[in-house]
Amino acid sequence: MVLKRDDLLEVAREFEQADRQLRRAQIRAAVRRAFLTSAAAEKQERKNRSISSIPDLQRERSSRSIKRPAERVANGPPAWGRLG
Fold first, then answer.
1. What is the DSSP-derived secondary structure letter of residue 3?
2. C-alpha span between 46 and 27 (Å, rounded)
3. The pTM of the whole model exceeds 0.90
4. How far apart, in whole angstroms, are the C-alpha atoms of residue 35 and residue 73?
5. What are phi and psi of 16, to 5 degrees?
6. Alpha helix (H) ranges present in the chain?
7. What does the angle CA 22 – CA 25 – CA 26 come to, to the nearest 5 degrees?
8. What whole-number distance in Å separates Cα of residue 65 and Cα of residue 84?
9. Is 12 exposed, middle or buried (0-12, 13-18, 19+ CB in 10 A)?
């Protein structure tokens, strides 16, 4: 079973409510496509950003010295801003 474009347009002309429903469905589909496209682009951007920052994170971690317990006590507790 196939619904041709001309037949659909004829139904839309004859039935105003069907035309409104079809138009609403078209708009909803377009908005959904735009939303999904935007989400996929943002996801790819985040993935690219995290991959490019891996060497920076590794350098940052390797530059931190591991403190012995006595040094940690002498320096006091870590500031909340530096946690996690």
1. -
2. 28
3. no
4. 51
5. -60, -40
6. 5-14, 16-52, 54-63, 69-75
7. 85
8. 16
9. middle
pLDDT in tens, 25-47: 999 999 999 999 999 999 988 88
Exposure pattern of 17-39 as b/e (b: 16+ CB <10 Å)?
eeeeeeeeeeeeeeeeeeeeeee
pLDDT band at residue 84 under the 50/70/90 scheme: very low
How far apart are alpha carbons 38 and 47 in whole angstroms?
14
Instruction: Give whole-number Cα distances, 21 to 17, 32, 65, in Å.
Output: 6, 16, 65
* Tokens read off for 63: 């530059």
Residues constituting the chain:
84
Specify the residue for token string 């409104």: 20
Integer-rounded Cα Rg, in Å, for the chain is 29
